[in-house]
């Protein structure tokens, strides 16, 4: 089901879709309800790289409810189908609500440890689930999620889907659909 796009979001997507630069797409803390939106963004923008910084099934809180592992597995299968079908190079960072073994089962060598630094198009990207995983690392971009806090040179995937265009280094954020934080289990914005 296509999402109704605001004029601003539509303009950003048109800019991203028409760019000849390398596109890095970054998401984090994604509830299952967000998967059609992610699929649509991938289809509209054609990213070369997709980086997920953890909590891939954020509506299932495995840290507190390990008995929900079958539900997590089913949702993870859906997201793996979307991300692997994108044709993009993937980097997947386990979050506190993830099962690292299942992530490796579905994503293989695309799974990297929090605090990993990768080079894409001559730029260094520090990847972590939380800001503490990347805050002290030397990098051009620090990608993370987990909470709503911001850090210097940081792109927080909880606040929206981030895109980095290379080699210009321009960044864009596409806001998540309304209700995403509720689907994550947040009743209000914490940490503000």
TrEMBL record:
InterPro entries: Calcineurin-like_PHP (IPR004843), Metallo-depent_PP-like (IPR029052). Coiled coil: none annotated. Residues 23-107 form the Calcineurin-like phosphoesterase domain. Transmembrane segments: none annotated. GO terms for molecular function: hydrolase activity. Gene3D superfamilies: 3.60.21.10. It comes from the Archaea. This is Metallophosphoesterase. It comes from Thermococcus celer Vu 13 = JCM 8558.
